[in-house]
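Task card 7
Instruction: Convert sequence to structure tokens.
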Amino acid sequence: MLDERIEFENFINSEGFFDYPQSNELQQETSLTTMETEKERPVLSPSDYLVAFSTQSQSYCVGYVDIVNSTKLSASLRADQLSQYYEIFLNSMSKIIGKFGGKVIKNIGDCLLYYFPNSALSSEVGLTNCLDCGLAMSNAQSVITEEMRSKGLPGINYRISADYGTVIMMNTNNSSSVDLIGPPVNMCAKINHCAGNNEFVVGNDLRQFTKKFQGYEYREVQSCNVGFRSSYPVYRVTSSHR
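Output:
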């Protein structure tokens, strides 16, 4: 565990961690797309967006990370500052997710939804990756804040949540990316607010599969309302190796 922690610290403090070589290309593509859209503005028909669901379901660990007070933040920054702020955050989180074998499904505004393909069939390796990723995101806050402030931007706080369960994969006709539909996806979003600043929380379904794993401590979050009549336990996760 100590070796893994040192390896991650070296990774996030490496010289190229905040370099995004494809960012400029994406910005150019986005600008061109915007210009073309302004020129054409076609009338959309229902057939312009179609979805196809997999006929089989699978169980995965799904994660969700969301910036705290993003609405207030948006009002206090210029457009160019806000773009840079989100770029640093979203790309940093994406790099950490990839480091632990996860895949980003999509960003929803300033949130990232992701999952761990190797967590299928409650694989211990995949579930451990999910937990380690959440803890690594939590620990990365100070480094990301330092980078933000070096660019003249405010520091950042965010919340991380994860859960485990059955999902169905979905594709659309206008994207090659895979989307997931199912209870753990919805639950991740619902329990996210139960975390404090830069904390990592998990739902009870994920805890049941991982509670005997070594190296993690779980503390139930009291008075966490996730919108159901019956309570759904949510747990704050920390490392027992400090």
